[in-house]
Backbone:
């Protein structure tokens, strides 16, 4: 039976069934599921509102790279039918409004404590639960602790000499000021050309007196071809939502759109070139979906990237700049960027591309970025330097399992878990959409729904079975991690220095973290484990351990 919420009148330690860390889409749906089952839930969120990623990433141009009609919760038919997206790819303010609407529609806010950061979570062997402490000095005693902390939440501030001395305006894309900033007429520098940089650069260029783009690795930017959504299209998709959801869940990518099944290399050259042109003109994920073996076939990938390099060459007037913008890694091994006018922006007189692979940034002065003997004077510096992805937001919390073992020590050589959901030695601690799951390679909303449903069903099952605890078994954890690595090694993914591998953070273990075995396959494995008495997990009734 769910515990009673004892929080009223007990300011020091509050008892709840579950603490959920984070009020992004994952935390909100987790809260909704558990509350509907009758559990008491406290969500703790560091921001002053819901939204997670979409609360923090307010930089100019921030926009989703999954089509908005699919980047929506499917758990409530009414919600799906009543919400109207306005653009093919929704911009950050609209997505944030949607998440706020979800919080209000389902009356979730009363369960969320805002502007509060979880500092530690410690497994309590006596109470068979978690002690969760916050930076406000509170302690929550909870049977379950659920980390909905997001994979791309811990902003990466690079250790550049003199960074603290820069006196101009200074922003990270993932910590953009709430009310925006007016950069009109300023000399702006931006470091980073991943998804955030690629989206921000065209808009910053329009405001700047001059924009310097400090690029270490060029990335593929596929045109988003964003456009307003027409009412008849919205109505058509809404009438097909059930089928779309079914197809998305049965797919490897978590997206209903599936490209050709046959390799384009089987077609005559003219025919396939015409197809690439057509798919490039549609834009978005349609172009990369042209290549069914993109991440396992070097030949197919070479063909996909040759076409993009030709587009860059045709778009960017200065051949030297075009060459510097041409990526060398395999398409998709770093997250593809979707953009609008990205390559065109380098034709502007007020934009300079600085190759910091060739001449690295040596330091910052109080007014400039210094690369070799060149000094770039700036009024404003934007860091689009990404995240300590997948593990960063978890390891910034002092998480301790059985025997006081710290998660950061257990994960010193890379994250270990079973099905990405639980870590051996950390009973009743669930992780949503983190390492060991396909979430970051799929549609996050679908991945979130799957995790929230699996975890809440599991919590409910434990109650029905009279079990106090569930945790991953060491041997199944080891088996899972080696499977995650084995399937990654069958692909081209490990060939690129991506955040998937932790390669963007100096000193981080180089381990491929997402599960590339496909969304449908992953969902089936999770379902199979649950239906086989939580195979791979150990259940503990009261204080006496029994085998599952
Ligand atoms: O971060 P990134 P992001 N000196 O890590 C460079 C999602 N997202 O915020 O590639 C110089 O991709 C770094 O260079 P390199 C999406 O999943 C989605 O852009 O490491 N440069 C790279 O160019 C995405 O993949 C959306 O050599 C330095 C850049 O900074 C993920 O978030 C929008 C440097 C970081 O790129 C992360 O994207 C935005 C240094 N010291 C984000 N340190 C959409 O939905 C780092 N860099 C569209």
Residues:
């Amino acid at each position: 039976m769910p515990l009673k919420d004892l929080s009223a009148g007990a300011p020091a330690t509050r008892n709840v069934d579950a603490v959920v860390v984070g009020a992004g889409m994952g935390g909100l749906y987790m809260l909704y599921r558990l509350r509907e089952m009758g559990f008491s839930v406290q969500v703790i969120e560091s921001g002053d509102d819901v939204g997670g990623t979409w609360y923090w990433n307010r930089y100019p141009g921030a926009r989703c790279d999954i089509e908005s009609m699919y980047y929506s919760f499917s758990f409530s038919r009414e919600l799906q039918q009543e919400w109207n997206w306005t653009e093919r790819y929704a911009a950050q303010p609209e997505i944030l409004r949607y998440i706020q609407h979800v919080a209000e529609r389902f009356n979730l806010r009363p369960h969320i404590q805002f502007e509060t950061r979880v500092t530690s979570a410690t497994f309590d062997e006596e109470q068979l639960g978690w002690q969760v402490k916050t930076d406000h000095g509170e302690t929550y005693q909870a049977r379950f602790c659920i980390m909905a902390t997001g994979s791309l939440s811990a902003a990466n501030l690079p250790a550049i000499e003199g960074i603290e001395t820069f006196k101009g305006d200074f922003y990270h894309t993932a910590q953009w000021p709430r009310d925006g900033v007016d950069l009109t007429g300023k000399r702006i520098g931006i470091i980073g050309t991943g998804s955030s940089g690629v989206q921000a650069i065209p808009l910053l260029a329009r405001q700047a007196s001059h924009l310097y783009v400090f690029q270490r690795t060029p990335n593929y930017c596929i045109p988003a071809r964003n456009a307003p959504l027409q009412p008849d299209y919205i109505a058509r998709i809404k009438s097909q939502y059930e089928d779309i959801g079914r197809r998305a869940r049965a797919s490897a990518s978590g997206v209903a759109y599936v490209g050709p099944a046959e390799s384009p290399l089987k077609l005559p050259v003219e025919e396939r070139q015409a197809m690439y042109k057509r798919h490039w003109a549609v834009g978005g994920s349609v172009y990369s979906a042209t290549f069914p073996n993109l991440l396992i076939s070097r030949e197919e990938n070479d063909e996909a990237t040759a076409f993009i390099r030709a587009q860059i060459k045709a778009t960017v007037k200065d051949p030297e700049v075009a060459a510097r913008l041409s990526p060398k890694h395999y398409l998709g091994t770093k997250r593809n960027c979707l953009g609008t006018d990205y390559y065109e922006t380098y034709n502007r007189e007020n934009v300079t591309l600085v190759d910091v692979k060739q001449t690295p940034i040596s330091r910052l002065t109080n007014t400039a970025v210094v690369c070799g003997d060149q000094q770039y004077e700036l009024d404003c510096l934007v860091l689009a330097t990404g995240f300590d992805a997948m593990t960063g937001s978890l390891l910034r919390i002092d998480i301790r399992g059985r025997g006081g073992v710290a998660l950061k020590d257990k994960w010193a050589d890379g994250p270990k878990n079973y099905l990405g959901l639980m870590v051996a030695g950390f009973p009743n601690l669930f992780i949503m959409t983190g390492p060991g799951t396909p979430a970051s390679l799929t549609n996050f909303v679908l991945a979130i729904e799957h995790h929230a449903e699996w975890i809440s069903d599991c919590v409910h099952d434990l109650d029905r079975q009279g079990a106090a605890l569930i945790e991953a078994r060491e041997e199944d954890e080891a088996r899972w991690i080696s499977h995650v690595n084995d399937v990654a090694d069958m692909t081209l993914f490990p060939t690129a220095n991506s955040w998937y591998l932790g390669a963007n953070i100096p000193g981080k273990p180089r381990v491929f973290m997402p599960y590339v075995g496909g969304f449908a396959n992953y969902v089936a494995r999770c379902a199979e484990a649950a239906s086989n008495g939580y195979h791979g997990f150990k259940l503990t009734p009261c204080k006496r351990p029994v085998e599952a």
About this structure: The longest strand covers residues 13-21. The pocket of 3-acetylpyridine adenine dinucleotide is lined by residues 63-65, 152, 158, 160, 173, 191-197, 199, 214, 216-217, 335, 338, 356, 361, 384-387, 499, 504 (CB under 6 Å).
